[in-house]
Amino acid sequence: MSDRLSRMIEGFDLVSYHAGINMAFAEVVGTGCKRLALSSPYDPELAEKMMEPTRVAAKTYGVELMVETDLLKSKLFPEDIAEGKSVIMIAQSSGVLDEYKRLKDLKRESAAKGHPEEMELEIARTFGRLLSYSEEKIEALIEMNG
Q: HSE (CB half, 13 Å, CA atoms) of 47?
C-alpha cells in the first residue's frame, strides 16, 4: 500500500504515514473501540524509527505497547504476514497483552499435538476477538487464509 501511495503523493514520507496510522490505532484502542491493534509489519530499521512516535501515541491515549518479533501464526492471516518483521501491538491494557501471550502458549501446545484443526480454529477465532473483529469477519478471514 505505501508503495502505491509513494507513487501517487509527491513528497510521501513513510515514517510519517506509519506514525499517523499508529496514532489512529492508539486512539481507537484508547477509546475502547478495539482491545488490540497491530501495526504494519516493519523491517528492523523501520521498527526502530516507529517506536518513539508510537510511544507518544500510547502515552497520549493511555494504551500499552509491546513489540512482537514473532507474531502469532493462525488461520486468521497469511502465515508469512510478519515473517522476519516486527509488529507493534497496541493494547487497552497489560491484561490484553497477557491474553495474547496465552494464545501463543496455546499455539505451542497445538504444535506439540500436531496442530489439531479444532485447536487451530479456536486460536484464530480467539485472536480475531482479541482484535475486536466481528464474528463474520473472523470467519471470512479464516476461510480466506486458513
A: 18
Query: Grid coordinates 518483521 are at which residue?
Result: 85
38 vs 132: CA distance, rounded Å: 11
Each residue's pLDDT tens digit, 39-98: 999 999 999 999 999 999 999 999 999 999 999 999 999 999 999 999 999 999 999 999
> Residue 108 carries which side chain, given as an amino acid letter?
R
pLDDT, mean of residues 4-9: 82
Q: How far apart are CA 6 and CA 20, in angstroms?
A: 15
Q: Using alpha carbons only, give the angle 8, 84, 106 rounded to the nearest 5 degrees.
A: 120
The cell 528492523 sits on which residue? 44
**Residue range 97-103: mean pLDDT, rounded:** 98
CB atoms closer than 10 angstroms to residue 125: 19
Query: What is the bridge-based pairing of β-strands 87-91 and 36-38?
Result: antiparallel
**Domain segments of the chain as ranges:** 2-145
Instruction: With beta carbons less than 8 A apart as the criterion, state whether 26 and 61 touch.
Output: yes
